[in-house]
TrEMBL record:
Organism: Oreocharis arfaki (tit berrypecker)
Principal localisation: membrane
Major facilitator superfamily (MFS) profile domain ranges (all copies): 37-501
InterPro entries reported for this sequence: MFS, MFS_dom, MFS_trans_sf, Proton-linked_MCT
Xref: Pfam families: MFS_1 (PF07690)
Superkingdom, taxonomy of origin: Eukaryota
Subcellular location: Membrane
Record keywords, A-Z: Membrane, Transmembrane, Transmembrane helix
Record lineage: Eukaryota, Metazoa, Chordata, Craniata, Vertebrata
Gene: Slc16a14
Gene Ontology terms: cellular component: membrane
Official protein name in the record: MOT14 protein
One term of GO molecular function: monocarboxylic acid transmembrane transporter activity
Membrane topology note: Multi-pass membrane protein
C-alpha cells in the first residue's frame, strides 16, 4: 500500500527478525469482525466529530442567549473540540491499561453527561466546564479507541477502512446540522442539548462492539506485515523491532511480567492449599489475586506509555514524526474555523436565504465523505505513495483557506467549501501515516500525540478568529493568518524528509573517504 516509504527517508538498517514460517492469519483481520469495528468507528465519528462540526448552530444560539463577545463564546466550541483531541496522550494510557472497549464505554457516559448538564447552563462559563471539559474528555475517550481499533483489525486495506470509518464525520456534520437546527427551532437549544445527550449514550454501544484482538493475533498481523513489506519496514520510523532493540519497551515489561507471574502463581498455590480453610480466607485470597492481576496490567500499560514518551526509545527520537507533530499544531484550526464561523459569514454577506436551502457547512460535510473514501482508495493503490497523496491534499486545503475570504457570492463560497471538504479527506490517511511511522504496537500513543497537537490547534483557532473579528469587524484576516500558519506546518513536512534522505548519503561519503 505504502509504495514509496523511501521517499521519506528513514532507514535504521535492521531487517525484521521475525521467522519466515507461514502463519495462518486471523480471519477477523481484514475481514469478519473487522467490518463491525469499521461500523462502530463510523458511528463514533457521526456522534462525536459530526456533532462538533455542527456546533456553529449552537454557537449562534449562545450568542443570542448570553450576549457575550464572539471571541469568548467561541471558546465553548473550541474547548470541546480541543479537549477531545488534547487528552489523546492520556487516553493512550487508559487504553494501555484498560483496553479500547472499557475506555470507550466510560467515555460515552461522560460525553452524554456533558451534553445533558449543558442544557441547564446559566452562563458561558458554566458551558466551559460542562460542555467544553466534561463532554470533551468523554469524546476523547471514545474517539481514540475508535481509530486505534480500525488500525489493529486491518492490514491490507487500512487506508480504505480508515476512510470508510471516518466518513462518519461528514455524514455526522450533515445530519447533526439538520438535527440541531430542527431541535433548536422546535424545542429550543436547551432541550436540543438534552436530547443530544440521550442520543450520545449510543457511544456506549459502539464501545461494546470494540472486541479486542488477542496478543497472538496482533503478533500474527505484524508477521504478515513484516513478510509482505520487507523492503518498507526500514523506512519512516522506529519500527517495533528497533524499539525492542533498545530494551526499554520490550525487555522491562517482560521482566516485570515474569516477576508478576511468579507472584500470581504463588497466590494460586496458596489458594489451592487453602481450600480446606475458612471461606473468608478463600475470599481474601481471590481479592489478592484480582488485585495482583490488576497491578500487573497497570504496570505493563504504564511502562509502555511512559517509555513511548520519555524512554530511550521515545517516539520523539523519530524526526519525521516530530515534523508531523509540528504540522498538526497548525493544520486543524484551518479546517475548524470555517465550520464555527461560516454561519456568521453567511449572515454578513446577506446570503442566509440561499444558505438555508443548502448550508455551506453541509456542502463541506457531504464532499468530505467522498474525499475520504476516494483518497483512501487512491492511497491503497500499489503504485501510489500515501505520503504524496497526503501532501497534495494539504496543499489544496491551504489554498482554499487563503481563497475563501475573496469569495462573497454563494456560488463562489460553495465551490471553495466543496474543495475544502474534498481535500480535508486526508484525515482518513493520518492514522495510516502514523502507523507507518511508529508501527501498530505504538499507534495508540503516537496517534494520541498527533490528535493532541490537532486539539491545541482546534482550541485556539476559533477564539482567535473571533478575537480578530471583534477588532477588525471582518473574518478575512483570520483565514489569512490561519492559512499562513498551516503553510508553515506543510513546509516542516517537506523539509524534514529531505534532511533525512541527505544524512545517509553524507555518512556513506565519509565512510568511503575513510
Amino acid at each position: 500500500m505504502y509504495a514509496s516509504r523511501e521517499d521519506i527517508g528513514y532507514d535504521f538498517g535492521h531487517d525484521s527478525k521475525v521467522g519466515s514460517k507461514p502463519i495462518k492469519p486471523n480471519p477477523n483481520i481484514d475481514g469478519g469482525w473487522a467490518w463491525m469495528i469499521v461500523l462502530s468507528s463510523f458511528l463514533v465519528h457521526i456522534l462525536i466529530m459530526g456533532s462538533q462540526m455542527a456546533l456553529g448552530i449552537l454557537n449562534m444560539e449562545w450568542l443570542e442567549e448570553f450576549n457575550q463577545s464572539r471571541g469568548l463564546t467561541a471558546w465553548v466550541s473550541s474547548l470541546s473540540m480541543g479537549i477531545t483531541l488534547i487528552v489523546g496522550p492520556f487516553i493512550g494510557l487508559f487504553i494501555s491499561m484498560c483496553g479500547c472497549r472499557t475506555t470507550a464505554i466510560i467515555g460515552g457516559i461522560l460525553n452524554a453527561l456533558g451534553w445533558i448538564l449543558s442544557a441547564y447552563a446559566s452562563n458561558v462559563h458554566y458551558l466551559f466546564l460542562t460542555f467544553g471539559v466534561t463532554a470533551g474528555i468523554g469524546s476523547g475517550m471514545v474517539y481514540l479507541p475508535a481509530v486505534v481499533m480500525v488500525g489493529q483489525y486491518f492490514q491490507k486495506r487500512r487506508a480504505l477502512a480508515q476512510g470508510l470509518s471516518t466518513t462518519g464525520t461528514g455524514f455526522g456534520a450533515f445530519l447533526m446540522t439538520a438535527l440541531l437546527k430542527y431541535l433548536c427551532t422546535e424545542f429550543g437549544w436547551r432541550n436540543a442539548m438534552f436530547i443530544q445527550g440521550a442520543i450520545s449514550l449510543n457511544l456506549c454501544v459502539c464501545g461494546a462492539l470494540m472486541r479486542p484482538l488477542s496478543p497472538k493475533d496482533l503478533r500474527e498481523k505484524y508477521v504478515v506485515r513484516s513478510d509482505s513489506e520487507e523492503n518498507r519496514a526500514k523506512a519512516l520510523s522506529h519500527s517495533t523491532e528497533t524499539i525492542k532493540s533498545d530494551g526499554v519497551i520490550s525487555e522491562e515489561p517482560e521482566k516485570k511480567e515474569e516477576a508478576a507471574n511468579e507472584v500470581l502463581g504463588s497466590v494460586q498455590h496458596i489458594e489451592v492449599g487453602g481450600k480446606s480453610g475458612s471461606g473468608r480466607s478463600m475470599y481474601g485470597l481471590r481479592i489478592l489475586k484480582t488485585v495482583s492481576q490488576l497491578t500487573v496490567t497497570v504496570r505493563k500499560g504504564f511502562a509502555l506509555w511512559y517509555s513511548s514518551y520519555f524512554g530511550a526509545a521515545s517516539l520523539f527520537t523519530n524526526r519525521v514524526f516530530v515534523a508531523f507533530i509540528i504540522w498538526a499544531l497548525f493544520a486543524y484550526s484551518s479546517f475548524v474555523i470555517p465550520f464555527i464561523h461560516l454561519p456568521e459569514i453567511v449572515k454578513q454577506y446577506n446570503l442566509s436565504r440561499q444558505d438555508n436551502v443548502f448550508p455551506l457547512t453541509s456542502i463541506i460535510a457531504i464532499v468530505h465523505i467522498f474525499g475520504k473514501v476516494i483518497l483512501g482508495i487512491i492511497s491503497d493503490l500499489p503504485c501510489i505513495s500515501t505520503w504524496n497523496v497526503f501532501l497534495m491534499a494539504n496543499f489544496t486545503l491551504v489554498t482554499c483557506i487563503l481563497t475563501l475570504p475573496l469569495m462573497q457570492t454563494y456560488v463562489g463560497l460553495a465551490v471553495v467549501c466543496a474543495l475544502i471538504g474534498f481535500s480535508s479527506g486526508y484525515f482518513s490517511l493520518m492514522p495510516v501515516v502514523t502507523e507507518d511511522l511508529v508501527g501498530t504496537k505504538h499507534l495508540a500513543n503516537a496517534y494520541g500525540i498527533i490528535i493532541c497537537a490537532n486539539g491545541i490547534s482546534a482550541l485556539f483557532g476559533p477564539p482567535f478568529a473571533g478575537w480578530i473579528y471583534d477588532i477588525t469587524q471582518k473574518y478575512d484576516f483570520s483565514f489569512y493568518i490561519a492559512g499562513l500558519l498551516y503553510m508553515v506546518g506543510i513546509i516542516f513536512l517537506l523539509i524534514q524528509p529531505c534532511i533525512q534522505k541527505k544524512q545517509p548519503k553524507e555518512k556513506s561519503t565519509e565512510e568511503a573517504q575513510v
